[in-house]
Design brief:
Layout: H1 2-35, H2 39-44, H3 46-61, H4 67-73, H5 79-89, H6 97-107, E1 128-135, H7 136-147, H8 153-167, E2 175-181, E3 184-189, H9 190-193, E4 195-196, H10 199-206, E5 215-224, E6 229-236, H11 239-249, E7 251-260, E8 265-269, H12 270-284, E9 287-294, H13 297-311, H14 319-343, H15 348-375, H16 380-390
Parallel strand pairs: 4-7
Antiparallel strand pairs: 1-6, 2-3, 2-5, 5-6, 7-8, 7-9
Length: 391
């Protein structure tokens, strides 16, 4: 029952934010239109201008919407105009606005009056979309089947990690970054992706934009019943653009908190850990959990909070429609690449080009392995196994 209340509250605040954003856009579009009029026309529109601005102020500052009222207004492209027109017809003042809104929600007359309804935005791939309350294993697995060719075994490792993350009590384990390309998949926490110098960051930023069929997703785990994992998936759009953002905004790593199987927990900077790693292991046993912390956790929290707000504005989409569009996109891209390769003479050129992509991926792996050897940050498979076996 508590879970349902949380889901309902989440839906309410998400819808409220959508309505606020749409009202902002409605008013901005209206003001831009008015700015294009001459002075005489502006005088004639004075009442309409005042009504739109008064309505906007009332809706965004004073009125407390119920959930079904928000859902109704979100059916329309311009809910601000619907309310403003209805209020203006009554020639009331702001004290009458509540009665106007009651009439709008009681009669549902806006559709009959011909106000434009929203149409679902076109799915663009790559593009920023969100998919809410989905079966994560099913949806991410279907994406993997369509994209990955070279290392399908990566998904098996990442799937086991998803189950371990779902069972974790640690909040940062519920927010993940899932990268996928023709060469395989990689899964890390969002926290580790935005901490510069560790595995999650290095994998996310080492991938080059010319690697075929490269996609990035943010994954939120919302519920786990022991079998199915449900949550939200956000397509982050252009991978190269997002990887560049991570490079420029990530917070440097400062240190590590290490938990041993005897229950001992040690927090220290990386240099101290390098110096004392062997003696700590001799004294405490096997490391069962490793958590990196940044040089400025306050700045990291602000950064991740901003990312959460930003992706909340992504348009919602249907998973089945997305998978169909993804299939068309990948098939088209691969056909185009095959045609380009067929034109190249001699044939060795194609082999050389293909090898260059492999070299880049191997270089990325070597960087992570080097980091692992230095700071106990395991490589992709090792990190995933650590989360799968020990968290």
């Amino acid at each position: 029952m508590a879970g349902n209340n949380v889901d309902s509250a989440g839906h309410y605040y998400e819808s409220q934010r959508q309505l606020e954003n749409r009202l902002d856009k409605n008013l901005a579009d209206f003001d831009a239109q008015m700015m294009g009029l001459d002075k005489r026309d502006l005088i004639d529109k004075a009442w309409e201008i005042a009504a739109m601005h008064d309505t906007y102020e009332y809706l965004t500052m004073y009125y407390c919407f119920e959930a079904d009222q928000i859902d109704y207004l979100l059916l329309f492209q311009n809910p601000l105009k619907i309310v403003s027109d209805a209020w203006g017809e009554q020639h009331g003042n702001l004290r009458d606005m509540a009665n106007t809104l009651d009439d709008i929600f009681d009669t549902h007359a806006a559709i009959e009056l011909g106000y434009d309804l929203m149409t679902e935005p076109e799915i663009r791939i790559p593009g920023k979309h969100r998919f809410m309350n989905v079966d994560l294993i099913d949806f991410l697995g279907k994406i993997t089947e369509k994209v990955v060719i070279n290392s399908p075994g990566d998904w098996f490792i990442d799937k086991q990690a998803l189950y371990k993350f779902a069972g974790s009590k640690i909040p940062e384990d519920k927010k993940l970054m899932f990268g996928i390309s023709i060469a395989g998949t990689h899964l890390f926490t969002e926290h580790d992706t935005f901490v510069k110098g560790i595995g999650g960051y290095m994998y996310w930023t080492a991938y080059e934009p010319d690697i075929p069929d490269l996609f990035g997703f943010m994954v939120e785990i919302a519920g786990f019943d022991g079998m199915a994992i449900r949550g939200n998936v956000y397509d982050m759009g252009d991978y190269a653009e997002h990887a560049d953002f991570v490079r420029n905004s990530a917070i440097p790593v400062e240190g590590v908190t290490v938990t041993f199987d005897n229950g001992a927990v040690h927090k220290m900077n990386l240099d101290n850990y390098d110096l004392n790693r062997k003696s700590l292991a001799d004294e405490n046993g096997t490391v069962i959990d490793t958590r990196f912390y940044s040089a400025d956790d306050g700045a990291l929290y602000t950064l991740l909070s901003h990312e959460e707000v930003l992706r909340g504005s992504f348009p919602a989409h249907n998973t089945e429609a997305y998978l169909l569009e993804l299939t068309d996109y990948i098939d088209t891209r691969r056909s185009e690449r095959a045609a380009e390769q067929a034109k190249k003479i001699p044939a060795e050129t194609a082999v050389k080009d293909k090898a260059s992509i492999g070299d880049k991926l191997r270089a990325a792996q070597e960087k992570v392995n080097a980091q692992a050897a230095k700071h106990k940050a395991p490589s992709h498979s090792a990190i995933i196994r650590l989360s799968a076996d020990d968290r």
